[in-house]
């Protein structure tokens, strides 16, 4: 028996493939492409997106945690999988066993990885993570060479690459960006000056991949753009992207309310005139940010309907414009297109006062996902049936 979900996320795999190809077209031949599929593929599904990205030409996948990497391995994906953050030393054996490529920025992890590799009779590759100004993860640029030298002396390890991450890649003419590039280049040069082969050099996230060809180096690492979303307004107009995620629900209930009546907890919204209210079966426990209450919309029957009242845990309400016939079971679109109307993920981010990265990730919380190609559902393990 197939059960149709009341609310769901739809992911267009063709869009993922198109985005990967469009991004790769920005980089020179021979430049490797890493598709970043951490955080459940920014809410789109790590495994289906990872697989699609690889078949569209991505060379490697990037995740944040060992658990995410193991999902890819368990699904049978054998492509190189990078851990963009240094894992805890206790995970070193799993890193070696599953052939993951970890970021490395401390002696502690280097020791753990080295001994895990020696025990397994292998040499474990790693990428040296250099902090050039973001002050988050990574070894400070001026200490990178000393760490590389110390780690090189350990048996079982292979320096396969060196990388950094930009704090202001959407402002590539800015001083802060330039300084990060200078520090990174200096760190790479200092390794080379000691005869240490730094291997693959990489730095560019989506914004830098699009805006700054000078920092493509040997590989780019794209996340948000693989999903068809822009990292910031700065990249609009520089590349055509196809948004992969839509968020949909079937109208649960339709009712008329009278002038002056309130809607939802706290009655933060009052109808000025009699209105038709449609209740949609998704809420903040599904990833709709409550802080965006009264600022969002949904499309039903090709018509934009304002979201009103506080978003609840499992439901939210919209006003159906007069003259539009809506009934229970109609498909409502919270993110995506229907008819002539479209609600971009960015509109939701704006309503919630956050970035599209966060609003997309949030939809991984509870909603089932269905995958489509060319507008038709495709069978994938774990995908909900009958979503269209
Ligand atoms: C998440 C991440 C990326 C991808 O960033 P986008 O802005 O989504 O392209 C690249 N590199 C590192 C180290 C990351 O953590």
Rg, Cα atoms, Å: 24 Å
- Alpha-beta content class: alpha/beta
Mean pLDDT: 96
N- and C-termini, Cα separation: 17 Å
Tertiary shape: elongated
Which bin fits the share of residues in helices? 25-40%
Spell out which ligands are present.
Answer: pyridoxal-5'-phosphate
Number of strands: 22
Helix tally equals 11
- How many strands, what sense, and barrel or not for the largest sheet? 11 strands, mixed
> Low-confidence runs (pLDDT<50, min 5 residues)?
none
Describe it for me?
With 388 residues, the chain is an alpha/beta fold. 27% of the residues lie in helices and 27% in strands. The chain contains 11 helices and 22 strands. The strands form 3 sheets. Strands 1, 11, 12, 15, 16, 17, 18, 19, 20, 21 and 22 form an 11-stranded mixed beta sheet that branches. An 8-stranded parallel barrel has the order 2-3-4-5-6-8-9-10, surrounded by 6 helices. The chain has a two-stranded antiparallel ribbon with strand order 13-14. It is elongated and about 80 Å long. It starts with 6 loop residues before the first strand and ends in an 11-residue tail after the last strand. The model has no long low-confidence stretch (mean pLDDT 96). Bound molecules: pyridoxal-5'-phosphate (PLP). Residues 36, 38, 84, 165, 205-206, 221-225, 231 line the site of pyridoxal-5'-phosphate.
List the helices and strands and how they pair.
Blueprint: E1 7-12, H1 13-24, E2 32-36, H2 38-42, H3 46-55, E3 60-63, H4 66-74, E4 81-83, H5 92-97, E5 100-104, H6 107-119, E6 124-131, E7 139-140, H7 144-152, E8 157-163, H8 175-193, E9 200-204, H9 206-211, E10 219-222, E11 245-250, E12 253-257, E13 262-263, E14 269-270, E15 275-280, E16 297-300, E17 303-308, E18 316-320, E19 331-338, E20 341-343, H10 345-352, H11 356-362, E21 369-373, E22 376-377
Parallel strand pairs: 1-21, 2-3, 2-10, 3-4, 4-5, 5-6, 6-7, 6-8, 8-9, 9-10
Antiparallel strand pairs: 1-11, 11-19, 12-15, 13-14, 15-18, 16-17, 16-19, 17-18, 19-20, 21-22
The structure holds pyridoxal-5'-phosphate (PLP).
